[in-house]
Design brief:
The protein has 574 residues and is of the alpha+beta class. It is built from 18 helices and 17 strands.
């Protein structure tokens, strides 16, 4: 639900801030007051294109900000989470357009691309009128409307998962077939590389171990002489550290007999003597184990040289050489068992195709039944909305694709239906498009080509009326829905909007009292002038003001008592 709308420095609007509620929201105003400007500004937060021309003269930028309640809208929350945007029950959508035509988009104060903002807008609002944001005029939305009406969402998801599995396995199979000749031609080369690596047989961590041992052997003389000297300094030489500590210990014990405060120092000196003795013992043992082994030194150098050759040829590190050997094993196994792997994947593709085809068949069958119900219901709704001669049909077709005939393999993303081969798509194999004829004797044509702006709004109103309980778009905006209607038809349009508002938040701009009289909330747009500048404002009306506005729509600028009485009667107020 749309909760608030803030517009700053947009065309004739200096600043406009409005709070909305649920139900049927009617917006009226004099011609030229700025009703369409408000809708155009709102289109910015839905991701529509904008130019610097919309920035009010004298301002640096135009700002439009809308707050939505998205607590129950899982699709919006998933899209926000996928783009690392903070998710709460409230979503603030903001768009800024500078006087230099630079545009910035924000969702909950996080900057986003225009494409993401447009995706969010399509999940929140359906706007009908002289605007691009009309889901009915996008053929790709028709199948979704049909599926929503029939409650086929679960089956569509079942197909989507099966289709994804099929595409994954088919992709693996296609990739393998592309590599078949390459693998077979490279087999000898791969085998040579594997044997070359195996002849050395590197293992993880080996290089560090060898380099450590080599460093020790290369410095064995230095290690021997240094440890011998160190042992003498610690234990056996003149004035050895251990002998000095023994003297100091004895002196400290003698002092402790005179003054007990030297007792701790004596004990610490004894500990130091023990530590030096252990250190000397370690150095003596190390010195005794130092070996001069030229043969081992040569072995190490040779081994490291062979590892260096492999590193240079296969990746620059021993671990990468080992990883390359593992890859060779996999490719050689594939090359040696290619036919078996291909056969297994072909079987999995066929199983996936049959599973997908079975679900798509069920979907298509149900869609044909649902389409007939939609067609009849739409025609009845349109008759009540002033399009009496309308004929409406939901056409379900499949994309046929060429097939090689007997003996040829079936494309992975296709299934057979009788003697034809049809392409699969993310919702089965059906393509759905609405067709319409609004005049007697005229053939039905694609809805996107034959409907006028006012008719589109009424057709969408009819569709929304029959889809009301299944449609998930929370906000519906109708602009120019009253074009070409009056009297009884206008009353029917108003009643239909009122009924639709029981399932959605509906915002309608109208000039007709028969529609305005159904409002749960009524806003009036007005234009004023000050200091040679025009200002558009939007104000929520009290009940008395609402009655007066409906009366104005009925009788013109001069509102009479009779007009007020007629307005009350039209609004059901007694």
């Amino acid at each position: 639900m749309l909760k608030t709308l803030l517009i700053k420095n947009y065309a004739l609007i200096q600043e406009l801030s409005v709070e909305f509620s649920s139900g049927l929201i009617i917006i009226t105003g004099e011609t030229g007051a700025g009703k369409s400007i408000i809708i155009d500004a709102f289109g910015l937060v839905l991701g529509e294109r904008a130019s610097a021309d919309v920035v009010r003269r004298g301002s640096d930028k135009a700002v439009v900000e809308a707050t939505f309640d998205v607590g129950g809208n899982s699709k919006v929350r998933d899209l926000l989470a996928a783009n690392d945007i903070e998710t709460t029950d409230e979503l603030i959508v903001r768009r800024e357009v500078s006087a230099k035509a630079q545009s910035r988009c924000f969702l909950n104060d996080s900057p986003v691309t225009l494409a993401i903002q447009k995706q969010i807008g399509e999940l929140l609002v359906d706007l009908h009128g002289q605007h691009e944001h009309q889901s009915l005029l996008r053929v790709d939305t028709h199948i979704g409307m049909l599926d929503d009406f029939g409650g086929l969402g679960g089956m569509v998801e079942e197909f989507r998962l099966a289709h994804a599995r099929l595409r994954s396995v088919a992709g693996e199979l296609a990739d393998l077939r592309r590599r078949e000749r390459e693998l077979r031609e490279k087999r000898e080369f791969l085998l040579f590389q594997a044997q070359e690596i195996d002849a050395v047989g590197p293992h993880p961590g080996e290089e560090d171990e060898l380099e450590t041992e080599l460093r020790i052997l290369e410095n064995s003389e230095k290690l021997f002489s240094a440890t011998a000297e160190l042992y003498a300094q610690l234990y056996e030489g003149e004035r050895a550290v251990r002998d000095l500590l023994v003297i100091a210990r004895n002196q400290l014990h003698a002092l402790a007999e005179i003054d007990p405060r030297f007792a701790d120092a004596a004990r610490e000196c004894s500990s130091a003597e023990a530590i030096v003795s252990e250190l000397a013992k370690f150095v003596q043992g190390y010195n005794a184990r130092v070996e001069f082994t030229p043969d081992r030194l040569e072995q190490l150098r040779e081994r490291l040289g062979r590892l260096a050759f492999l590193k240079k040829k296969y990746g620059g590190a021993v671990d990468l050489v080992i990883a390359h050997r593992a890859k060779l094993s996999s490719e050689l196994a594939l090359a040696d068992n290619f036919d078996q792997v291909i056969a297994r994947l072909e079987g999995e593709v066929e199983e996936g195709r049959q599973e997908s085809a079975a679900i798509a068949d069920r979907l298509s069958s149900k869609r044909h039944d649902i389409a007939r119900k939609i067609d009849n219901a739409i025609v009845q709704e349109l008759a009540g909305l002033g399009i009496a001669q309308a004929r409406f049909s939901t056409r379900i077709q499949q994309e046929q694709i060429p097939h090689t005939g007997n003996g040829g393999s079936l494309p992975a993303n296709a299934v057979r239906r009788g003697k034809t081969t049809v392409a699969l798509n993310p919702r089965g194999y059906d393509n759905v498009e609405f067709y319409l004829s609004t005049n007697i004797g005229e053939e039905e044509k694609p809805l996107t080509r034959v409907a006028s702006g006012g008719e589109v709004s009424r057709i969408m109103l009819a569709l929304k009326s029959i889809l009301a309980k299944t449609d998930r778009l929370p906000v519906l905006i109708f602009d120019e829905i009253d074009v070409g209607v009056s009297g009884r038809i206008a009353q029917a349009v108003g009643a239909s909007l009122k009924n639709l508002a029981g399932f959605h938040q509906v915002i309608a701009i109208t000039h007709l009292p028969q529609i305005a009289g159904f409002a749960d909330v009524h806003f009036a747009v007005s234009k004023t002038e000050k200091d040679a500048r025009a200002f558009t404002t939007l104000r929520r009306l009290t009940l008395d003001e609402q009655v007066r506005e409906v009366a104005r729509l009925m009788s013109g600028a001069e509102v009479t008592e009779a007009g007020l009485a007629g307005a009350r009667e039209l609004m059901g107020l007694h």
